[in-house]
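Summary of Year 1 activities. Much of the first year was spent building the evaluation harness for sequence design. The harness presents a backbone, in tokenized form, and records the residue chosen at every position. We chose the following record to illustrate the format because it has been used consistently in internal testing since the harness was completed.
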């Protein structure tokens, strides 16, 4: 059973992301459109995160990604396929002590806006980020040895924040266009 490891936010995570993004860009160079740092390690306003760098790669053709599996394996990533989300390619690095997750979606997939809106919303709404921080800390204390229960316990709040982020993101995209 995986332990729940929540640590204070670190500015080093941005540097770790940048280094990994440069390496990944060489592998995905023919198909990558954007590479984004997502997840709690990218959101300083939350203040705490599992020390796993989540990376979102937007590509022009998801069907071409499977040909990169051997290159990802050489970098130490496990190839997980869709891993429960249709249209995604997922890779994780670090085994039981995960260090990186790479989520790959084809341009236009709704999951891209989901992840980016969630990040931007919590950066722009520190009071909501504080709610999320409090829930993470509460659950990490309650379930330090049961990561599944930790994840399960925060799902209701994550769903609420995702809904708010989606509404906010749709409005801000209209204003930008």
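For this record, the design step produced the sequence shown next.
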């Amino acid at each position: 059973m995986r332990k729940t490891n929540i640590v204070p936010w670190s500015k080093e995570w941005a540097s770790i992301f940048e280094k990994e993004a440069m390496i990944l860009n060489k592998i995905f160079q023919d198909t990558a459109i954007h590479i984004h740092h997502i997840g709690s390690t990218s959101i300083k306003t939350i203040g705490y995160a599992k020390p796993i760098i989540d990376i979102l790669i937007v590509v022009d053709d998801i069907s071409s990604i499977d040909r990169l599996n051997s290159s990802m394996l050489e970098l130490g990533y496990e190839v997980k396929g869709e891993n429960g989300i249709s249209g995604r390619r997922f890779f994780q690095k670090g085994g039981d002590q995960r260090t990186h997750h790479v989520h790959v979606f084809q341009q236009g997939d709704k999951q891209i806006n989901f992840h980016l809106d969630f990040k931007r919303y919590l950066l722009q709404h520190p009071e909501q980020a504080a709610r999320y921080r409090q829930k993470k800390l509460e659950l990490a204390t309650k379930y330090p040895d049961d990561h599944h229960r930790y994840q399960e316990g925060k799902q209701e709040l994550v769903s609420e924040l995702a809904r708010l982020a989606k509404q906010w993101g749709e409005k801000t995209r209209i204003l930008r266009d």
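The mean pLDDT is 95. Quantitative recovery figures across the full test set are reported in Table 2.
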